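Hey, can you fold this one?
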Amino acid sequence: MDRFQEFLTNFHHQLSDALTVPINIKLPKDVQRVIIAGMGGSGIAGDVLASLLYDEKIPVTVCKDYRLPGWVDAKTLVFCISYSGNTQETLSSFSDAQKKKAHVVVIASGGKIRDFCMEYRIPHIAVPHDYPPRCALAYLLIPMLRILEQYGYLKKKVQEVQDAIEIVSQPTLRLKAEQLSQKIGDKTPVIYTSPRLAAAGLRWKQEFNENAKVHAVYNTFPELCHNELMGYSHGHGSLYVFILRDESDTAQVQKQMSVTKEIIKSKGYEVMEINMKGPSQLVKILTAIHLGDWLSYYHALAHKVDPYPVDLIEQLKKR
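Sure. Predicted structure:
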């Protein structure tokens, strides 16, 4: 078993372990909004959190930039997530959050941001190191869920994590991913979801990029029906389309998905529908993510690509 495969195989253990990461965070009682600052494999935890809070009353925003929006203030909870602790954009947002007097919580495995936290006594959650950031999702997401549940902004998320652990530990997702990888071949994967599974769709794209080193397309219903659908007009391009369905999607979105599938197929493209089911939204998102992680891994192996290194990203950081 190669090291990257080991990370994927142990995802359920990471989820379980993340429930035991020490957390000693005190939040103010007047938090009115949440923003998550993070990039890439760290930032995806923010996208998952935003998807989970889609139907909640507290506003949640994901920031993937060098500075935070102008509305961030002392009543904003800012999660700064940088697995390495050295991500330039997140370090800059961290500084910006302090200037805006926001309440800051940092999640990192080390690096400069941890040193700043220790120096200025800013709340910091230390997570295990020696993972590629994209393989540390459990450690970056679960602490946020635990904190928000502890202060009443979320309910029953810890139990939902337990439900997800049981499901992702089963070998069925891995076997399904291996079968799906054989269908893609040399085609460019296209991933469509509803807003409820948006984080999973984005994660699929990112994992195809980093693991298989290929381009991938990602979009959401209903927006894609007002623009991207026209790209199929002439049947050009070698694409394989995935539609991730959520049983909780609205009737309007479900109908759009069905009609869109018919239109795309009529233009000569292959479309694969995948129905995500589960007792909670968290379970469905984590299940979809784990399936996509395995799929990108097998796609890499099929093309004799090492999924572990991200040389171009490292080259960019150095320059």
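The first strand starts at residue 33 and ends at 37. Let me know if you want another pass with a different chain boundary.
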